[in-house]
UniProtKB/TrEMBL annotation:
SMART domains referenced in this protein's UniProt entry, alphabetically: AAA (SM00382)
One GO cellular component, as annotated: Holliday junction resolvase complex
Organism: Streptomyces mobaraensis (Streptoverticillium mobaraense)
Presence of keyword Hydrolase: yes
Stretches the record annotates as Small ATPAse domain (RuvB-S): 195-265
Residues reported in the UniProt entry to bind ATP: L33, R34, G75, K78, T79, T80, E141, D142, F143, R184, Y194, R231
Localization terms from the record: Cytoplasm
Region (Disordered): 346-365
Coiled-coil annotated residue ranges, if any: none
Known partners and oligomeric status: Homohexamer. Forms an RuvA(8)-RuvB(12)-Holliday junction (HJ) complex. HJ DNA is sandwiched between 2 RuvA tetramers; dsDNA enters through RuvA and exits via RuvB. An RuvB hexamer assembles on each DNA strand where it exits the tetramer. Each RuvB hexamer is contacted by two RuvA subunits (via domain III) on 2 adjacent RuvB subunits; this complex drives branch migration. In the full resolvosome a probable DNA-RuvA(4)-RuvB(12)-RuvC(2) complex forms which resolves the HJ.
Protein name (database record): Holliday junction branch migration complex subunit RuvB
Keyword tRNA-binding attached: no
Amino acid sequence: MKAGVTVDFVPPPGERLVGAVADHDDQAVEAALRPKDLSEFVGQERVREQLDLVLKAARQRGATADHILLSGAPGLGKTTLSMIIAAEMGAPIRITSGPAIQHAGDLAAILSSLTEGEVLFLDEIHRMSRPAEEMLYMAMEDFRVDVIVGKGPGATAIPLELPPFTLVGATTRAGLLPPPLRDRFGFTGHMEFYAPAELERVVRRSAGLLDVAVDDDGAAEIAGRSRGTPRIANRLLRRVRDYAQVKADGRITRETAAQALEVYEVDARGLDRLDRAVLTALLKLFGGGPVGLSTLAVAVGEERETVEEVAEPFLVREGLLARTPRGRIATPAAWEHLGMVPPQVAGGAGGIGQGGPGQRSLFAE
């Protein structure tokens, strides 16, 4: 490098580090970082304890485990747990997803090729087609399916016996599952968001597997910005590792982690550019609300669905934004987080967006 010339460290374009949905890079890295048994799995203490009892009892009986439903937000470890279930039962695992099964024949082909005791992991099970869903009822309960041959009056149903298997369904929206399907699962586990201390353990474990030097403060800094999600913690760890390798001595300290995540526009509370844009528009342009979702989306230059499904859930969970019948409003915590002071309603009765008497919004839909 020539004297007097500096090169800025620039993050890859278009990457949302705090998105909980896995991309191709995440899938490759997660395969290497996934724990192999329940004892290595960090967090989800209640689900782990309950699942351990279910699997041990099945092994003692010499039977396949009951069908298992895992629900929770993306990135909390549902796929990892499904692989651990197969490993604990000493069985192979078949992985597919709801959107990939659009016809009953697709499901019949998968079920008919299963071996005894095999684990079938069905991700996003709530997005499976209705005909396939109805076929799954009989397969789960009676271990058989009826294959329809022919059409019209001459159609014939041929029963096909299936070997005992364990279905592990994963969903981010358990409420969309019809009751007949939900009731056929013998065990349902709900995955909770992780506490910062649990995420610190995740970061330290992943750093060891990636051969990255990280001190306790550095791990705490990454964990605090990971939105309660291990997948995001691992992604932030990889980006901080890159920064430490290029701009520092390769060791991740609190200062290095903070500097790296400032480059990637992830603040101390885990908000990224989109999150802050939504809050800033809500506060500066609309005085804290209430404001309609479509109006807010136009103000930040994003689609309505992007604001509603990508930004809002975390902002609501953090208590920075509230959904009301009149529209979206900012909470006092939002004003405080962005270092702004809410305007006063006439007469000094609270700030705009804080529910002052008789307050109405010109922007509500």
